[in-house]
User: Which sequence fits this backbone?
């Protein structure tokens, strides 16, 4: 429970007014419940002639606070006798019944009010956790997601948050309400007989120990079950992404067997958790009955021996209160099981929420609004894992308005190098400067605002063409979007679609061809109008006609901009101001296309292979 309150405390603090309200209402509900039981005593003792003693009225406050219960009990019997003497037993029974009904109405109304106060808390906590996870996902560096499975992250956002909702937030009512009921009931029992209550409390640890033994391993088993479902979600995600390959290689049976195995493991783990959790009620029921039996024997022994501080009717009322106390104890133990189960999911979610963001801003970063002179890449080294450098002593100066190109074999570090400029990763050594200022001293928001990206894979969102082009640009008008689309050679095909700019592109732009998707992404970069442009294999996946249209759009986009282009097709970058050839993370050659051909080195070999 301590871990529960430590980890959920920040969420509870946001809804403290609701917690105060439910505490107050539940205290009233418990008090009304105790008083409703006390109405039964006069019915038993007076109406059915169990007690023939004659009671006289005692002034309130007689004997001080220590004697308050006795005074209240005496006066209750006095007024009951007065009702019987004045109106008869039948009318007295009706009056007491109406009082019991009124107290029950008050009890149930306050009980409902306490539960209703928790609804904003329950739903708010689940909403806040989802928002916190999403915000954290947006803020984490790209390196975090290269080490985590996408399916596992999806499982934590969906299944684990749902588990928190069903296990933890659904137990809040029991966690807040039941301790109040237990305290009020135990306080009433102490007021009736502290000796008998002390004996009862000696028996409670035996009951709690038996229940605690069951719940001890519930969290670990739940954690294992949730990890197995993450494996299943990951496999579903991989299947959706690779369905074409699965069908091409006739691997449906293999994938089905893999998923069946994972699903069976999850089923078995979940079954063990459910069995352990379902054992809570019968065990607590049995142990509670054992406690009642022990207290019944001890109380009966005291009454028969004449040493009991309460009489027989008082002992019956005491047993009623004790039996009523068992239900909140059972509910509290049930909540404990649910919370332990939910804490396993909370622990998995905290792996995302507690993940360190290695891309950090300094305390007072500088804002940058334009590129005035040059981008300097000075003696840069970079490694994803220490000791295994991907880039080694890279130095490049890109003057404003220049177009430079990076070429080389796959894995030579080209994409990694351009990812360092907008700080998707931070350099391991050296520095990258814009107009002489280290990018690590700049505001990340303003730095990335300078840069436009067109990648090999055109990433579109499941939205309209208009919203995809206007993505990241506030208050873009229809005229601005159309102007950007015209420059990108996209306007004509857009107007041929059924709804024009309001046509939905489908999941990842699946309703458009590769060339159309790429031209939409170019239009998006044009609308952003960045001073620095990064082109990462922007035409490598296109057919000849689409490549010509896209290349024409890129040339328009590159005018008056500082451009860094990564290309495998050397024909697309032969007019660059300077070409840098990377091999195994190092710059091995640089120069214009003609200069590199004349050097007869690595670039010349690449050019000859493509010509062949």
Assistant:
């Amino acid at each position: 429970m301590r871990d529960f309150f430590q980890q959920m405390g920040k969420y509870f603090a946001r809804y403290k007014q609701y917690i105060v309200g439910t505490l107050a209402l539940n205290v009233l509900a418990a008090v009304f419940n105790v008083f409703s039981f006390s109405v039964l005593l006069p019915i038993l003792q007076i109406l059915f002639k169990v007690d023939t003693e004659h009671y006289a009225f005692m002034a309130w406050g007689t004997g001080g606070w220590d004697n308050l219960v006795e005074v209240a009990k005496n006066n209750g019997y006095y007024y009951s006798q007065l009702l019987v003497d004045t109106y008869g037993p039948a009318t007295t029974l009706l009056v007491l019944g109406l009082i019991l009904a009124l107290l029950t109405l008050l009890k149930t109304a306050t009980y409902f009010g306490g539960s209703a106060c928790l609804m904003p808390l329950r739903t708010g906590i689940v909403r806040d956790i989802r928002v916190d996870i999403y915000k954290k996902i947006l803020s984490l560096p790209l390196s975090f997601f290269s080490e985590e499975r996408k399916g596992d992250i999806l499982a934590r956002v969906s299944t684990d948050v749902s588990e928190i909702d069903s296990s933890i937030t659904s137990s809040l009512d029991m966690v807040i309400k039941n301790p109040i009921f237990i305290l009020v009931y135990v306080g009433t029992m102490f007021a009736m007989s502290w000796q008998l209550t002390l004996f009862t409390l000696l028996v409670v640890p035996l009951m709690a120990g038996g229940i605690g033994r069951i719940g001890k391993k519930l969290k670990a088993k739940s954690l294992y079950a949730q990890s197995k479902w993450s494996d299943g979600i990951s496999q579903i995600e991989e299947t959706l992404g690779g369905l074409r390959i699965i069908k091409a290689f006739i691997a449906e049976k293999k994938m089905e067997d893999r998923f069946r195995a994972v699903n069976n493991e999850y089923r078995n783990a979940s079954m063990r958790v459910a069995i352990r959790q379902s054992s809570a009620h019968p065990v607590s029921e049995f142990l509670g009955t054992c406690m009642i039996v022990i207290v019944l024997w001890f109380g009966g022994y005291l009454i028969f021996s004449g040493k009991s501080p309460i009489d027989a009717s008082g002992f019956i009322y005491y047993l009623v209160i004790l039996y009523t106390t068992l239900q909140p104890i059972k509910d509290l133990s049930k909540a404990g099981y649910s919370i332990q189960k939910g804490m396993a999911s909370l622990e998995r979610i905290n792996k995302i929420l507690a993940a360190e963001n290695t891309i950090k801003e300094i305390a007072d970063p500088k804002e940058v609004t334009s590129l005035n002179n040059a981008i300097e890449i000075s003696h840069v080294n970079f490694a994803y894992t220490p000791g295994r450098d991907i880039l080694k002593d890279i130095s490049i100066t890109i003057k404003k308005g220049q177009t430079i190109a990076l070429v080389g074999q796959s894995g030579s570090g080209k994409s990694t190098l351009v990812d360092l400029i907008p700080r998707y990763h931070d350099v391991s050594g050296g520095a990258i400067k814009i107009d002489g200022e280290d990018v690590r001293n700049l505001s990340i928001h303003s730095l990335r605002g300078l840069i436009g990206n067109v990648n090999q894979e055109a990433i579109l969102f499941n939205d309209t063409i208009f919203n995809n082009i206007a993505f990241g640009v506030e208050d873009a008008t229809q005229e601005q979007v159309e102007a950007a689309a015209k420059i990108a050679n996209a306007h004509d095909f857009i107007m041929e679609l059924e709804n024009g700019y309001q046509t939905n592109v489908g999941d990842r732009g699946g309703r458009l061809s590769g060339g159309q998707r790429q031209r939409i992404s170019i239009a998006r970069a044009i609308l952003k109008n960045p001073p620095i442009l990064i082109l990462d294999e922007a035409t490598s996946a296109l057919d000849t006609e689409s490549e010509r249209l896209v290349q024409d759009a890129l040339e328009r986009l590159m005018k008056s901009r500082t451009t860094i282009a990564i290309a495998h097709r050397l024909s697309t970058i032969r007019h660059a101001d300077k070409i840098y050839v990377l091999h195994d993370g190092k710059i091995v050659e640089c120069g214009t296309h003609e200069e590199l051909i004349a050097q007869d080195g690595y670039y010349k070999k690449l050019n000859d292979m493509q010509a062949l």
Notes: The chain is about 65% helix and 10% strand. The longest strand covers residues 389-399. The beta strands are 374-383, 389-399, 403-408, 429-434, 437-438, 451-455, 532-536, 562-566, 578-583, 586-591. The chain has two domains: 2-353, 374-611.
